[in-house]
Amino acid sequence: MQASIAGASSPQDACTAIEPRFAELLAASGWLPDEYQAAAPESGMGGGIGQWLLYRADDGALSLFSLVVPPGSETPIHDHLAWGLVGLYRGTQDEETTRSEAGRSNLSKSVRSSRAISTS
Known about the structure:
There is one protein chain. The chain is of the alpha+beta class. The chain has one domain (2-119). It contains two helices and six strands. The mean pLDDT is 81.
């Protein structure tokens, strides 16, 4: 994966290059230990949302996180401030995407997904 990222000419190309392997990982069951699938009631994110770092390359070029959002919890409006892939290992996600124009945010897309991969 790291060689694919290093050889990419843009973040979008890097996402395209690693997406097939990421999809394989999401489709496989049993690889993610239970502790990285658990809610975190004491989390500063609220709602029991847990964020677990699974891997970070020494050069920082690749990180893999597990984000656990318990049913009924919501994340606030946010920007990832990075490029990458987002995938669902289990469950479903309702996502609203906004874009800013002249200082105003407008809803541009609302999606309900399951086992999906999207780029950020």
